[in-house]
Amino acid sequence: MSDPLHIEQGGHRTWLKWHRGRRKASDPVFTGSRILEAMRLGASVEVDLVIHAGHGCAILHNFSLEEETTGSGLVRETPAAVLRDLHLRGSDGQPIADKVMLLEDLCGLLAQNQPNPDALLQLDFKEDCAALTPEVVANFGATVGPVARSLILSGGDFDAISLLANSAPNLRTGYDPCYGESLARLKATGDFSAFINDALNTAPDAEMIYLAYDIVLEADAAGFDIVAPIHAAGRRIDAWTIRTVDDTTLPKVRRLLALKVDQITTDDPEGLIAALAS
């Protein structure tokens, strides 16, 4: 089997993004070995960032520690040294050998292991602008600066993304409007054109627009091609997240490919590419 990197269809390449550093469904999340593998192969891979007590970021998705790690309490209230001593949990909830990484740990690994030029690591910032202090911003810039060319920073608060990105030259940015007021307006009006135009105007510097895949498909069912204005604006689109590969999700993936999305986020890149090839 070829490595699960991308799919070529109709002259268009759609990347398969390794969601939370997973190559296959059974993988635990956020392990350094899988992330380095992805970067070596030239894959697109994503990790999440949550602020910790030391004015830096942990590679975790949740604001509390219980589900993902052997710790307890809020990440925001936990010192860096304590976080580094916690073990991650596998998909079965049991502790694994891998420990929690901080952003500087991950960037250090990338600095020591030169990524493939095609590789792209998405840092998905899970907090908003109100959470940013000058110390957090300064630490972020110093940490990601040396490896910024291999990274893209994303989130639902583009003010926060811009503030962080300005601390690190050469860092690309992306925007996810599928939260908060933007999503509420879409649900109230059903106006997909206004939704995507607002996203493009809110984040003029974002190279990638991240959309929940069901929004892409709902727009398509309503007769509106939500991909076209993104491409017309010179941006790329990521459709997230295909969590399982089965008879329900495969037709959806095939439609996303036909719509020419540039990237599909999935928890099972290996299973997805095998299923599409069979």
UniProtKB/TrEMBL annotation:
Residues of the GP-PDE domain = 37-270
Q: Name one GO biological process term.
A: lipid metabolic process
**What molecular function does GO assign, one term?**
phosphoric diester hydrolase activity
Pfam families reported for this sequence: GDPD
Full protein name: Glycerophosphodiester phosphodiesterase
Q: Which organism is it from?
A: Devosia riboflavina
